[in-house]
Amino acid sequence: MYIKFWGTRGSIPTPASLPDIKQKIRKALEGAAGLDLTDKAVLDRYLDRLPFTIQGSSGGNTPCLEIRSGDQLLIVDAGSGIRLLGADLLERGFSGQNNHADILITHTHWDHIQGFPFFRPVFIPNNHFTFYSPFDDLAERLQRQQHPDFFPVPISYMSATLEFKHLPENQWCQIGNFRVYPMLLSHPGRAYGYRIEDGHTCLVCASDSEYKRVDPSSTEGYVDFFHDADLLIFDAQYNLTEALDRPDWGHSTAMMGAELAYRARAKRLALFHHDPASSDDKIWAGKEQAEAYLARRSPKDFDCEVIVAYDGLSLEI
Q1: DSSP states of 63-94 as a string?
Q2: What does the alpha-carbon distance between residue 31 and residue 155 come to, in Å, rounded to a whole number?
Q3: Fewer CB in 10 Å around end: N or C, the chain?
């Protein structure tokens, strides 16, 4: 299974600010003291060795995932990242030759659907998109987002075929190569996680969820849902203090992700849905805390890799 993250930020798109960029440049220059940067080989080697928090960025687009198994394309959520996915698809020939993709929607808060009006493949005749979610009124929700009061182009202007199918929660459903199981998560207004299997590997998308109690009886259902995942994509929007200060906001922490990944024996934990106010340093600090927690908790026969999901990250699982 191939996975690419096109958007990993929560709540609202967050472009890098000028102070953020200047700070990265300053740190890079400070670390280069004494090096001959006129030597291209020295410069390239130095740049390659910089930590990701200096040489890169977690990005600012809101959630969108590209998932492939064989020749099937499955998209999860339509945050602002789907605009870039659409441009990439068109460059690869997804342009009106009876191309098809399936789209899972976790919920319809704006950060998870706001990119859909800018997804260019839906404006091309003969393209076909099938939407799946446990929401009976998903089509109407997307139409309301493009009401003239809020957006100049109505959804009826889109030339591709848009099909909507209901997924019953807590039941397996076959979508081409994929088996998909939706589970209701703890988030205002209802949001769903998806367990996605293709016969070889298992991905669990569990964004936008809060875990107020950590005792086994309260978390048993989540542990079962995450069990043996090859990759668990987990909402780590807050640190512990922020989570305590924002009850009922529907988000979690890297530490909770580490605890549930440990209990579920997940092989990889991807920290996701980063807060718009979080710097790269803060996001990577969450990764270090999760790794330290797992190092203390985990037996020698179990290892869970912690990664930070960032815009543009691609993985094979």
Answers
A1: PEEEEEETTEEEEE--STHHHHHHHHHHHTT-
A2: 51
A3: C
Q: How far is CA 160 from CA 37, 105, 163, in A?
A: 51, 18, 10
- Tally Cβ neighbours within 10 Å of residue 287: 18
Domain ranges within the chain, ordered by starting residue: 2-14+57-316, 18-30+37-55
**CATH class (in words) of the domain with range 2-14+57-316:** alpha beta
CA distances in angstroms from 216 to 259, 263, 297, listed in the order given: 11, 9, 15
Q: Residue 255 and residue 273: Cα distance in Å, rounded?
A: 14
**How does pLDDT run along the chain (317 residues), one tens digit per residue?**
999 999 999 999 999 999 999 999 999 999 999 999 999 999 999 999 999 999 999 999 999 999 999 999 999 999 999 999 999 999 999 987 889 999 999 999 999 999 999 999 999 999 999 999 999 999 999 999 999 999 999 999 999 999 999 999 999 999 999 999 999 999 999 999 999 999 999 999 999 999 988 888 889 999 999 999 999 999 999 999 999 999 999 999 999 999 999 999 999 999 999 999 999 999 999 999 999 999 998 677 789 999 999 999 999 99
Q: Where do we find the tokens 């994509």?
A: 233
Residues 171, 181: contact at Cβ < 8 Å?
yes
- Cβ–Cβ < 8 Å for 6, 65: yes
Please answer whether residues 128 and 163 qualify as being in contact, where contact means their C-beta atoms are separated by less than 8 angstroms: yes
Phi, psi of 59, rounded to the nearest 5 degrees: 95, 175
